[in-house]
């Protein structure tokens, strides 16, 4: 199976929780069904039947599906996998004379941060439907640890403009530390610096990740850097 989480700068942290608050616990679920296409799914699932667990699992599944380039509108991960395989079989039938490798769909999630306030999971997907290369994508999913609700950046960052300025400083610093000798001019396609779609929590601070094609060519792959809590905390709405 293709390993599709190319970065592991995160460390899982479970802060001490009060006796009144029971944090969610997670199992790792693997899809065992066999398909003609190369399909795998290994994802985190909150245990139990509490409202918190149900909310987390619904939002994780929805986030995974939203990350995929599915041709049909689906709300169930199992149905998405079946639809992908069906599309592959239809392709093979319609283009039987074309010698193409099997299509691939790989899904992997990782619980990377958990506190009394926030849960962060990384969702990584890889899709291949022929051609020069497949499509990699990463999503950092932040959830309210008490409700399971999906959090947007504005739910935990107070001053977006100020945080953007701080992030630009750390982005440039990360480039200076990179051996590839890249500069900010190699990114953003001539546009001003902007925050990535993916901002999540790690043990040491906030991690920011730009997906492939988001700010640079495919050859440069993912672009990521971190802002330590010591510098980011003044912009956070929660401890």
Keywords:
three-stranded antiparallel β-sheet; alpha+beta; 239 residues; 5 helices; flat
Describe this structure in words.
The structure is a single chain. The chain contains five helices and eight strands. It is an alpha+beta fold and 239 residues long. The strands form two sheets. The chain has a five-stranded mixed β-sheet with strand order 1-2-3-4-5, with helices on one face. A hairpin with a 3-residue loop joins strand 3 and strand 4. The radius of gyration is 19 Å and the shape is flat.
Instruction: Give helix % range.
Output: 25-40%
Number of strands: 8
Strand order of the largest sheet: 1-2-3-4-5
Main β-sheet: number of strands, strand sense, barrel status? 5 strands, mixed
Oligomeric grouping of the chains: single chain
Which band does the percent of strand residues land in? Answer: 25-35%
Q: Can you tell me the overall shape?
A: flat
Run of helices and strands: EEHHEEEHHEEEH
**Euclidean distance between termini CA atoms:** 38 Å
Q: Would you tell me the overall average pLDDT? A: 89
Low-confidence stretches: 7-18
| Class of secondary structure makeup | alpha+beta
Count of individual helical segments: 5
Radius of gyration: 19 Å
Brief synopsis:
This protein has 239 residues and is α+β, with helices and mostly antiparallel strands.
Topology:
Elements: E1 26-30, E2 38-46, H1 51-67, H2 77-94, E3 104-114, E4 118-128, E5 135-144, H3 153-156, H4 160-176, E6 198-201, E7 205-210, E8 223-228, H5 229-232
Parallel strand pairs: 2-3
Antiparallel strand pairs: 1-2, 3-4, 4-5, 6-7, 7-8
């Amino acid at each position: 199976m293709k390993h599709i989480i190319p970065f592991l700068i995160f460390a899982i942290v479970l802060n001490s929780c009060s006796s009144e608050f029971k944090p969610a616990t997670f199992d790792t679920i693997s899809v065992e069904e066999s398909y003609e296409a190369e399909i795998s799914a290994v994802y985190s699932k909150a245990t139990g039947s509490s409202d918190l667990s149900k909310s987390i699992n619904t939002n994780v599944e929805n986030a995974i599906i939203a990350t995929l380039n599915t041709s049909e509108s689906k709300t169930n991960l199992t149905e998405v996998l079946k639809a992908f395989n069906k599309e592959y079989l239809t392709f093979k039938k319609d283009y039987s004379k074309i010698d193409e490798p099997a299509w691939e769909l790989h899904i992997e999630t990782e619980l990377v941060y958990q506190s009394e306030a926030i849960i962060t999971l990384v969702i990584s997907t890889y899709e291949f439907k022929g051609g020069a290369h497949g499509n990699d994508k990463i999503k950092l999913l932040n959830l309210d640890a008490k409700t399971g609700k999906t959090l947007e950046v504005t739910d935990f960052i107070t001053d977006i403009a100020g945080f953007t300025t701080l992030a630009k400083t750390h982005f440039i610093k990360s480039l200076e530390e990179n051996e590839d000798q890249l500069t900010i001019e190699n990114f953003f396609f001539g546009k001003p610096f902007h925050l990535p779609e993916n901002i999540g929590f790690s043990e040491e601070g906030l991690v920011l990740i730009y997906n492939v094609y988001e700010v640079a060519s495919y050859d440069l792959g993912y672009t990521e850097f971190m802002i330590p809590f010591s510098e980011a905390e003044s912009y956070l709405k929660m401890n």
